[in-house]
Structures are given as structure tokens and as C-alpha cells.
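Before the break, one more example. Copy the sequence into your notebook; we will annotate it together after we see the structure.
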Amino acid sequence: MKIYAGFMGRAWLLAKDGSTIDVEKHPTPKYQFDEIVDVVLSYGNDREQAIAQSYLDTEDESLAQQVLDIYYNNWCKVRTWGNFNEEITFRINSDGYDWYRVIVDFLLDHPMFKNSVVTVESDKASGVCKTYWQDIPYAEAIDDSNAAVLASQLDDRDIVVL
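Here is what the structure looks like once it is written out:
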């Protein structure tokens, strides 16, 4: 990732269904775990909300891990960088979910990123550090002719540079 004079732009949590939650910053398990619980309570399905509520009632560590797993499996972190959104980063950690179409649809719904480069990587807070797409131009990321290659890179979890 490049440093853009330390300026972080907007941030969202992007759900598998394409819905977004505007956030000021992405909560981390170590420092803002209560915010993660709040996200699951507010946006999770009934079963997920019950797990989060049980965690609040008991503060059981195994439930805390389940809440964290729910958070990572349901939401992708999205962040823009730079004064003019020079870069947009998607951080994913879900197991076995194909985020390709959700990411592309997000980009298509936000044409203000048309001059940005797109990076998709694992969420470093999970302890895994991998980059799947690095600095791919917006136009190439949304181009259907690149769909097979880009989607496969998310499956293989290897780096891709077009």
C-alpha cells in the first residue's frame, strides 16, 4: 500500500448481499470488539444475533470467537486512500465465499472510484497477510473480460497483477 500523506478517506463494511454500512473506522478485535458485537447484533441474521447476545450475557471466550467469525465471514472492509480516492482497498477474510461479484458491483455503484486502483487483501487483524489483487486499475477490475482471472485469484488466494 502506498502512503497518501496519511489521509484515509471513507470506510464501509460491505456485506455479501452488497449492502454497505458506513463506518468512521473499521473495528478491530483487540480494541473495538464491542463495536464488532454491535455490528453483528444490528445486521446479523437471527442466529448470529443470538450468538452475539449470548456473548454479551456471558462474555464467554468461545462465543467471542464465534462473533468474530461471523463478522469476518459476513463483511468485507472497504477503505479509500488519498485526497482524491487514489486507491480503494477491500479486506476479506471469509472462508469459501466468492467476493468477486460483490466487489465489482460495489465499484460499479460508486463511479467516483473510476480513477482509483483497486487492491484486495486479507484483513491483517486476522493474522493472515495476503494480497489477492494489487493496484488493479478500476477499468480492468470491472471489465467482464477479466472476470474469470480476477475471480479465480480470489479463489486461489494468490496475488494477481494485470
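Residues 1-6, 157-162 have pLDDT under 50 and may be disordered. Strands lie at 8-15, 20-23, 75-81, 87-92, 117-122, 131-137. Try to locate both features in your own notes.
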